[in-house]
């Protein structure tokens, strides 16, 4: 009779013996293997008891060990057969199971399937034997859509042990084999785990004192194996130490590490030596669990080094919080480091091209040509600085957040403006507090497909909800084509995620080809609304929300349906070729035309108050009379002693037009030129000829008259002058 110990596991799902058609192949020694064989047979499994009957040194061969266990099982009414083949003949082992218990597909594996437990056999064939037997069983498992594999490694393999080099190598090799089997098997419901047991057995009795061997009983290991083989157990790819009635799980840990290479400088051994403490510092260590997570660190280093930017390892959230004055306790609530984002008209134009703007459409020129009288930045460019903050070390630096980046999909996006975007400037981006939000506010939600199972609330009350469109025909529908290279172009705005360009990476994420950035389709839909309902006036844009419902492939056509409900424009965007809804629950909130531009942009753009020019004049007069003379000569200004320009400026804030009332040639002109600070100073100091500056593109002029008359100066960052 079986002991009542069997009941517990039956309760958690093992089938009762009469219903069971498990097939268990057990490589048996008199220790652990016997224990497994008895335990599984007790629960109705059909057991192949395999043992070459070798001794601890791998010598000898006898059928006695296997026969004894088979007898024991049969005496208690269980099903077992002995097998004496080497594991190198894995196929024979499977065949003996088939012969004894019938055709696997029909009688053995219909409900539960296979179970393999590898136990010590002969050291030199640990690895190969495990591989061969698994390979022989693999297709049967796949057919049955069920399989559980347990590899047995050893502390000697995990940690090393004096005098056991060959054994250690074979044993840790098993872990590598198990890790890959776990990945390959998972979609077929074949799970593979590894255990490192400490138990008294025929093999350990020669190296452990007898009383220790006696107390480390095999029955303290078998329950773990039974649970890992259970149909309800979802553990896959795990490594466990087990013994003396205790079970613990092991995992890899990786230090934050240190980047020692800079774009223009080679990496040297001296740099490695000097940073050794940082390399080995496990503060805020991460715990990568997949090869993608491992690779992601290198990919992010490459982009950071190539960008010529920061070469330190990303600061931990806590460190960054401390450095930025945020209470480190809040960092536990996943505050991101502060990040700065510098941009000018180049980024604005690149972004506009990335979201499908084209010179084919005359309306688009104001977003594509910095010399256009109404040159503006598309409002949805507002996502770029905060996305850069998230991508560039932001997400990766959150302690304890391990993400497989092949599985990251953008879920939703909300963007709200506090003032219109300038066409150049510096953004400081970080998560809340709200008081810091001066220009715009972004809310991202990201899906990590297949991560799940961490419980907790499914959403946050702070998340802006998607809103369904009204149930009536749309007021407008715009169809627009993305190009085959849309993602290749869009990524230049800063989302370097390989998912959008690298076929191999996309395949790891389960896609047939690289997919379009969610924020690219978002940009398409937003500008459809901008044109249709806001006359392409970016200052009318108040907020936008979208949910990314399905991926878009570059080259597909987007069809944006729009419903106007007061100042809210509901949007639904479909892929024309498939009719799949790709943006759902989306809407744009617009300012009424009259309430647009509540205040002018503080820097850049074309709205500059005459204060700016007075300030420039003051600074120039501070430098000295020589400079004043040169400026007056070059620009036709008359800088007074007080630093005021004699030219009279009027600025029409409402229409955004600056005009010179009285210039050296008199009369009213309406021109703009833009020049970077340093180039401006070169011009006024006579070092740079304005004509040359003009033709080299350093000085950009709007208008069509002589340079000396063009005197609305827009400085990139006049505060620095
Ligand atoms: C880090 C910086 C910024 C982040 C940028 C990220 C980096 C970028 O480079 C990555 C990208 O741009 S990826 C491209 C854009 N995104 C996509 O293509 C995703 C498209 N969406 C999908 O495939 C599915 O909706 C999918 C797979 C997301 C979900 O589909 P299903 O699993 O089938 O879900 P379903 O059964 O329909 O619903 C389950 C619950 O989830 C809610 N839900 C569905 N889609 C959602 C979405 N997009 N966002 C938020 N919630 C969503 C459903 O409402 C449902 O919830 P509940 O059960 O509570 O009702």
The proportion of residues in beta strands is 15-25%
CATH class of the largest domain: Alpha Beta
Spatial arrangement of strands, main beta sheet: 3-2-1-4-5-6-7-8
**Tally of distinct domains:** 3
Number of helices: 25
Computed Rg: 35 Å
Q: What ligand molecules are bound, each kind once?
A: 3R-hydroxydecanoyl-coenzyme A
What name is given to the CATH topology of the largest domain? Thiol Ester Dehydrase, Chain A
Domain MaoC-like: 469-582
Domain SCP2: 615-716
Protein name: Hydroxysteroid (17-beta) dehydrogenase 4
Main location: other
Short description, anyone?
Helices cover 32% and strands 18% of the residues.
Features:
721 residues, alpha/beta, Rossmann fold, Thiol Ester Dehydrase, Chain A, Nonspecific Lipid-transfer Protein, Chain A, eight-stranded mixed beta sheet, seven-stranded antiparallel beta sheet, 25 helices, 22 strands, 32% helix, disordered N terminus, disordered C terminus, binds 3R-hydroxydecanoyl-coenzyme A
């Amino acid at each position: 009779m079986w002991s009542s110990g069997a009941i517990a596991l039956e309760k958690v799902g093992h089938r009762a013996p009469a219903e069971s058609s498990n097939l268990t192949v057990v490589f048996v020694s008199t220790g652990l293997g016997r224990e497994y064989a008895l335990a599984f047979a007790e629960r109705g499994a059909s057991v192949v008891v395999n043992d070459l009957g070798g001794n601890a040194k791998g010598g000898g061969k006898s059928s006695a060990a296997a026969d004894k266990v088979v007898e024991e099982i049969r005496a208690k009414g269980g099903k077992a057969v002995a097998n004496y083949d080497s594991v190198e003949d894995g196929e024979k082992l499977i065949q003996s199971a088939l012969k004894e218990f019938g055709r696997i597909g029909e009688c053995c594996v219909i409900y539960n399937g296979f179970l393999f437990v590898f136990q010590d056999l002969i050291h030199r064939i640990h690895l190969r034997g495990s591989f061969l037997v698994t390979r022989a069983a693999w297709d049967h498992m796949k057919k049955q859509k069920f399989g559980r594999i347990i590899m047995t490694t050893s502390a000697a393999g995990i940690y090393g042990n004096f005098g056991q080099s060959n054994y250690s190598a074979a044993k840790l090799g098993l872990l590598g084999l198990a890790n890959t089997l776990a990945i390959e098997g998972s979609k077929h419901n074949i799970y593979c785990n590894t255990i490192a047991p400490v138990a008294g057995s025929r093999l350990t009795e020669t190296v452990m004192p007898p009383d220790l061997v006696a107390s480390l009983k095999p029955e303290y290991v078998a329950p773990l194996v039974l649970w890992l083989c259970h149909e309800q157990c979802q553990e896959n790819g795990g490594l466990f130490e087990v013994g003396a009635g205790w079970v613990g799980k092991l995992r890899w840990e990786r230090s934050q590490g240190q980047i020692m290479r800079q774009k223009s400088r080679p990496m040297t051994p001296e740099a490695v030596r000097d940073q050794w403490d940082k390399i080995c510092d496990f503060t805020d260590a991460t715990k990568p669990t997949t090869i993608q997570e491992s690779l992601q660190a290198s990919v992010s280093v490459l982009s950071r080094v190539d960008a010529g930017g920061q070469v330190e390892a990303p600061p931990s959230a806590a460190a960054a919080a401390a450095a930025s004055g945020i209470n480190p306790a809040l960092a536990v609530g996943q505050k991101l480091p502060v990040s700065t984002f510098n941009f000018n008209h180049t980024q604005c134009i690149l972004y506009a091209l990335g979201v499908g703007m084209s010179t084919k459409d005359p309306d688009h020129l104001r977003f594509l040509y910095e010399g256009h009288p109404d040159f503006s930045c598309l409002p949805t460019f507002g996502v770029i600085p905060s996305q850069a903050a998230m991508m560039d070390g932001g997400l990766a630096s959150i302690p304890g957040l391990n993400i497989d980046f092949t599985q990251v999909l953008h879920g939703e996006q909300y963007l709200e403006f506090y003032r219109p975007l300038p066409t150049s400037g510096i953004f400081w981006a970080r998560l809340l507090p709200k008081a810091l939000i001066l220009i715009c506010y972004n809310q991202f939600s990201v899906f990590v497909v297949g991560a799940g199972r961490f419980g907790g609330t499914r959403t946050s009350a702070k998340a802006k909800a998607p809103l369904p469109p009204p149930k009536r025909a749309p007021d407008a529908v715009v169809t627009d084509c993305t190009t085959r290279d849309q993602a290749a172009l869009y990524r230049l705005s800063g989302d370097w995620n390989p998912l959008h360009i690298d076929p191999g990476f996309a395949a790891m994420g389960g896609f047939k080809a690289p997919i379009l950035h969610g924020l690219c389709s978002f940009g398409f839909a937003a500008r459809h609304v901008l044109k249709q309902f806001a006359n392409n006036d970016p200052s009318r844009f108040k907020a936008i929300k979208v949910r990314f419902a399905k991926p878009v492939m570059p080259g597909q056509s987007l069809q944006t349906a729009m419903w106007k409900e007061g100042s809210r424009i509901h949007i639904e965007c479909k892929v024309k070729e498939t009719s799949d809804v790709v943006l759902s629950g989306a809407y744009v909130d617009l300012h009424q035309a009259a309430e647009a531009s509540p205040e002018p942009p503080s820097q850049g753009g074309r709205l500059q108050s005459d204060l700016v020019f007075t300030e420039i004049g003051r600074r120039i007069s501070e430098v000295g009379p020589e400079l004043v003379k040169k400026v007056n000569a070059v620009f036709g200004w008359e800088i007074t002693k007080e630093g005021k320009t004699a030219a009279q400026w009027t600025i029409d804030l409402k229409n955004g037009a600056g005009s010179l009332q009285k210039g050296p040639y008199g009369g009213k002109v309406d021109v703009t030129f833009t020049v970077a600070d340093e180039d401006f100073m070169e011009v006024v100091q006579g070092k740079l000829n304005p004509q040359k500056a003009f033709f080299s593109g350093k000085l950009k002029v709007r208008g069509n008259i002589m340079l000396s008359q063009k005197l609305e100066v827009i400085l990139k960052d006049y505060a620095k002058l």
